[in-house]
Structure formats: C-alpha cells, structure tokens
UniProtKB/TrEMBL annotation:
Biased composition (Basic and acidic residues): 68-96, 104-116, 194-204
Pfam families (UniProt xref): Methyltransf_29
Protein name per Swiss-Prot or TrEMBL: Methyltransferase
MF term (GO), any: methyltransferase activity
Alphabetic keyword roster: Glycoprotein, Membrane, Methyltransferase, Signal-anchor, Transferase, Transmembrane, Transmembrane helix
Comp. bias (Acidic residues): 139-174, 181-193
Lineage of source species: Eukaryota, Viridiplantae, Streptophyta, Embryophyta, Tracheophyta
Membrane topology qualifier: Single-pass membrane protein; Single-pass type II membrane protein
UniProt-annotated location(s): Endomembrane system; Membrane
Record-stated family: Belongs to the methyltransferase superfamily.
Record organism: Gossypium darwinii (Darwin's cotton)
Enzyme Commission code(s) on record: 2.1.1.-
Top-rank EC class of the record's enzyme: transferase
Keyword Protein biosynthesis found: no
Amino acid sequence: MALARFGRQVKRQHGVCVKMTAVAILGLCFIFVWSMFSSPSNSVTVQRESFDDIAEPVASSTMVSKSKGKDIEKHDANGNKKKVESSLKEKDEKKVNGSLPLPAHEHKSGKKNEKHVSKRKKDKVKSKLSNKVSKENQENQEQEESQGEEAEKENEDEEEVVVDDKEEGLDGESEEKGEMEGDADVDESVDQETQEKAENENEGKKRKIKGPVFDPKAHYSWKQCSTRSKHNYIPCIDVESGFTRLHGYRHRERTCPKAPPMCLVPLPHDGYDSPVHWPESKLKVLYKNVGHPKLAAYMKNHNWLIKSGEYLMFPQNQSEFKGGVVHYLESIEEMVPDIEWGKNIRVVLDVGCSDSSFVASLLDKDVLTLSLGLKDDLVDLAQVSLERGFATFVSPFARRRLPFPSGVFDAIHCGRCTIPWHAHEGKLLLEINRILRPGGYFILSTKHDSIEEENAMNTLTSSICWNILAHKTDDVSEVGVKIYQKPESNDIYVLRRRRNPPLCKENENPDASWYVPMKTCLHTVPSAIEQHGTEWPEEWPKRLETYPDWLNNKEKAIDDTKHWKDIVDKSYLTGLGINWSTIRNVMDMKAIYGGFAAALLQQKIWVMNVVPVHAPDTLPFIFERGLVGIYHDWCEPFGTYPRSYDLLHADHFFSWLKNRCKHPVSIVVEMDRILRPGGWAVVRDKVEILDPLEAILRSLRWEIRMTYSQNKEGIICAQKTIWRP
C-alpha cells in the first residue's frame, strides 16, 4: 500500500524531488550494505590512501607508530595479511618516491625511525585504525610490541652505519677537513641521535624480563668472526662494510653493529702466546701478539720501539722526545714547580697514545696515566700500550663527549700534538676544559707551529680564561711546550670582554657524557659544597682514603672499601687459584666506589673501573680517590682491543642487567673478546644466573676453576683457554 501511494506521488507534477530523494536513499542503502560485507583489508587500504605523511610501508608484523606511549598494531588476522601489506607498500612507496618528501624536522634522523609518522597526524592514524583491531590481535599484543622494539633497534643501528659508512681517508688531516665542512649538520644529527638514545633507554626501563637472564635450556654453537679487521676487531669502532671503495677502517663516531656480535674474534695470524709479565712488560712484549705490517713500517722511523728477535723492545729513556722522556718530564717540572708528579698530580689523561714511554716514566713517579687511543691510530699503538700493561682505552674524539664526568683529571697531556684545537669553534678544547679539574694543567707540546695556528690557539685559550703558565722551546727535545692552567673560580669569566664561547645553561649537566654531543659552551667552575671539584684533592696516597664533603653516603663508601679489602685479602688472593704475579690489566665491570681497585693496589695492578650508565654516578669519587674509570653501557661492546685484560671482575653484574639488555649472552661473548687467553673471570651473582652462565662458559671451552654457592648466592672463577672454533 505504501509503495502504491509512493508511486502515485511520483507521477504528480512535483514528483521529480521525490525521485531524487528515492535515488539518494537507494544509493546510501547500497553503500551501507557494501561496507558491511566488504573485507577488512579493503577497508584499511582505502583509509590508508589518504595518509600522505607515512614515510615507509607498515609491515603487518610491526607497529605503525608511537603515540603517547601506545602502539598501533596490525589490523588483519584472517588471512588477508599479505594482501594488506603489499597494498600498503605499493601505495606508500609511491608517496616516498614521489613529490611528498618528509620534512627533516619530523624525523629525528635519516633512517632511524622510518616507520614514524609526523606528530600532527599521529592521533588521526590512531583513531582511524584502532577501531579495526581484532580480538586475536589484542591477544598477541605482547609479541607484537617486542617485535616492534627489535625492528626499531635495527633501524637505529642501520641509520648509524649508513651515516658513518662514508669514505674516510687514512690521513687524519683530510678527515678533519671533511668534518669541518659539515660540522653544523653533524651537530644536529648527533643531538637527534642522543635524544633518540634516551628514548630507547626509557623504553628499556619499562620492559621487564619475566624469565631468567640466560635460557637454561639453550645450546650454543660458535663460529669465528669474519670481519675486515680480523684479529683486532673492535665493534662499534671498526668499519665492517663490504664496500671495496671504503678506505677508512674506523667510524668517525661510535657506531655499533645492528645486532650484538655473537662470534668469536680469531687469534693473530701467527698465534698468541702468554704475554710477558709485569714489570718486564714495561721493557718488552711478544711481537707476535701485537705485530702487523703498519706497525712494522712505523718502527722504521721511530726509535722508542725496536724489534729484537721475537720481542718488541722499548729501550729505556728512548721516546719521541729527543733527549729522552725523563728530560722532558723534568723540564715540565722546572717550568711549573707546582706540578709535583705523584703528589698533587696523580691522575693524567694522555691524548693520542703516541708514545707509551711517557706513561711508563710517569708510572715510575707514582702517576696513574690513562691513555686515549684515537680511532685514527691505524698503527694500533694503543694495543701496544695495553700489552705493556698501561691503562688505555680507544675512542673517537670528534663530535661526542668523552665518557668521563667533568673536572676529574689533574692534568691532560698531548705530546707532539697535531690536533687542530682551534677548529670547530674550539669544540675539542672545550671538551678538554670540561673534564679537566679546576686549577688543573693542560700540557701541550708541538713541533713547528705556524703563526696562524699559534694565534688561533692563543685567542681560544684567552676566551676560556686559561692562564699560560709557561711557554718554552726546548733545545734538546726540539719541541715547543706550553703549559696552561684552568681557572679555579668563576670570577674571571665575568671579566671577559667577549662572551664567546658563551657560558653553558644552568640546566646543562656537565657530567652527562654517554652519547652526548660536544657543546660549544663553557661550563662554570663548581662552587657549591655539594658539587665535586670545588677543592683540590689531598696529595697521593692520602687521597685514596679521603672521603670529601660532597660525597653522599660516606658510610657506604667506607664500608665498600673495607668489604672489598677483606674479600681480596682473605679470599681472592689465596682461595681462587689465581697466580696474581701474572695479572696486570684488570677490569671491574660494575664498579661502585672503587673499593675493589683500592684493595688491589698493593699487587701492582691497575683497574679500569667501569660505571654503567644506568647505575648511580659514583665515577667522580673514583677519580677523586686517585683511581681511573669510565662510563659504559654494557648492552654495547667496550672500546678496547681484543685480548686486553688479564682479569674481569663482575659482582652481581648480570642480575643487575636483567631488564636492560635484550641479549645478555652477547655480554659473555664480549668478555671472551676482551680477555686474554689464560685470563680469568671472577663472577659473583645469584645461583639462578651462575648455573646457566657456567654452561655458556663451558661452551666457549673456558675452564671452570672453582664454583661455590651459599644461600642462593655464589661465585664462579673461570679461565679462558686459547680455543677458537
């Protein structure tokens, strides 16, 4: 009846409007029915056609983006995954390769987060896609998130590799020139990378591992690393690209592999023998342990090291400085009598590691020198220094801060220096200023300085208020020596005529250094009583047992010192079966107050105190005691050569890392890399960690010399063998 009445209305004069209304209603009904019965994949594909800000196709096994800490998952669980993925990929690739490039500011770096959308449209993507999430996808949410995080990490590492896989010349000067040209862009990328690093760390804190640190049911099979640098492989520093055009061997900045290395570094071509023991190693080392063609070529033009039979010899009082290193050190003391080696000057940084005889002579004066082996040291003199038994680490020194807190070195030395300190707005010298103690000394010796370079250096040092204490050209050594002193207070900064470089902002943390870019600003001298560096430490060795007012929890530091002295004296020295006369280079992988290192001083051993970046910052106090250390994130390889250390000490190290590193087994592989054959590892931890760890060490063919447990706590003492797969 209703349809008949409707038909009669249509035939009337004004029936045209009714006709149009009917057509519209039928059309809407058709669209509604079609949308109800069409597949979800088609619906998603249509919606995605309007999102012109997507940089890369969103794979069905990964998250789309982050928006306020929540992740958007894939949207098809009914067998249409491949269709959606290919459709999205095709459409998004057109946008990326077409006329819609992403603005640079919308992405923190080139390839690191290619799946991220712009902030302006994140909420729009989330609102359109979240309604399509199925119940099955919700059940698999945890698996999706873990896969997405791994993908993000891979993209992060890929970005760094691509950025640094540019051609590098073997000549340091040409590399410096290249860095000068693109310095502004580099600074921006380093800032972005640092911010992203912090975001990933915050994500890591939220992620909790429910199971054990090591899988007790896992079985391991090992292979040797097939890398470009072979037996001297340093992950995060060495370039391992397969491109034949790539001339540089090392990254310009720390750049870690996409995945942690799970291979074993091979031995040198001629094998590896037990190193010469201390103190004989000051005068000779086995050449086969460190020799390679570039070192052989270097020896032809330098007389402080010579090959004699199977040994690499270091003649006494022979150095890069004519007249001998002893004369060089004495001339420095004559120029500035306040420099009393081994008393008020205890901790020194030697930049460049060009002549380890300088370190050896300072050691005779009770000065602990930490040598910085630069990444363009292709002769591997830093490895020679480690083989001799001197404290050494390897790091780039160009864009990021060195891994030290501020104001900790009593003196910094750069001998026969070729570093262009005045370049890049004096960024490198400002970094030296950051880590130099207030009132500390910067000793610079150069040869044949040009007038332009000398004027530029004078202008720079004046702008940061360094006082030139002495300037002398030694007739014997034929080098010009300048000794600068850093201000002890902030009063002099107010008197500067030019405020360039400017003072750093108050919220700039001078101690932050891990993946932090260098700044072209000047940190003020600490003045508050709760800040470290306000006063010069006591003379050595009194400073070892001095606890300054700025140290929080003095009682804990005192107890830590007593605790480790008792353990070392009553257990380690007598109960582990270690011949301590063969131990020289030691690393404490999770140092707190340096108590373990202090307890070993009488054994003529030096300890690298590693303070993890996520742990409480106790490194300034370790330096205050007259010891040395470094910041490090153990989720990444350490900056040193293979076969560097005689003993590794890890006290509740793995249980602390449980929720911080995705692949804890890779840390054991790293321990195998940096420990010498015949070296020892002492691990104290929970039994639930030590049992599977023992299985991993046995798979590496390490000898388990002792195990002991009580009340769910235990200790493993293991010795690395010479075995390689």
